[in-house]
Design the sequence.
């Protein structure tokens, strides 16, 4: 075989190689630039989508916070109402029923005795009034202290625990006996 004879001058071969290298590098650069632009465009679009999602989520979060703040006032009102309800429930459950006290007091008071003033302080009552005689006052005191008194409420036996006679005066003008007594009572019996 015959070897190829290259008649192109060496300078021209170098120029052709340079031109070919420039063309190849240009094509590769353009391809690299296209790929880079495509990747950048993809990331730009993705980033823009993520930013819009973030804005949307932030606005949703702000709306939720506003709703929570509005509900906090309702929660505070609810808690306050619950506290008030519990206080009222305990008051109604544990308060003494003074109507029972006065019913029992009226049942044990003889007709000859009249109470003009009654002052109730937790656990004791001061009673001032008049009676037709000293014996009526004695009967009244005995009725209050009698645990087996038959005219009153059977659940309130032992309601009155102690009686002290503070003063007794005979008014000569009206022939009545004015008295002042202190009566101690069991509050637990009034809470039944």
Sequence:
């Amino acid at each position: 075989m015959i070897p190829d004879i290259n008649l192109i001058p060496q300078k021209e071969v170098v120029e052709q190689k340079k031109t070919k290298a420039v063309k190849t590098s240009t094509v590769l650069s353009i391809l690299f630039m296209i790929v880079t632009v495509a990747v950048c465009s993809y990331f730009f679009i993705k980033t823009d989508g993520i930013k819009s999602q973030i804005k949307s989520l932030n606005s949703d979060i702000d709306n939720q916070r506003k709703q929570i703040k509005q509900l906090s006032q309702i929660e505070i009102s609810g808690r306050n109402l619950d506290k008030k309800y519990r206080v009222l429930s305990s008051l109604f459950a544990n308060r003494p029923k003074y109507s029972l006290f006065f019913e029992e007091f009226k049942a044990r008071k003889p007709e000859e005795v009249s109470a003009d003033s009654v002052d109730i302080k937790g656990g004791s009552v001061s009673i001032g009034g008049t009676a037709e005689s000293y014996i009526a006052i004695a009967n009244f005191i005995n009725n209050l202290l009698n645990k087996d008194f038959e005219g009153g409420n059977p659940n309130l036996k032992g309601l009155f625990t102690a009686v002290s006679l503070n003063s007794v005066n005979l008014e000569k003008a009206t022939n009545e006996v004015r008295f002042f007594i202190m009566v101690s009572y069991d509050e637990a019996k009034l809470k039944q």
Observations:
- The chain has a mean pLDDT of 85.
- Residues 98-191 form a domain with the Alpha-Beta Plaits fold (CATH 3.30.70.2830).
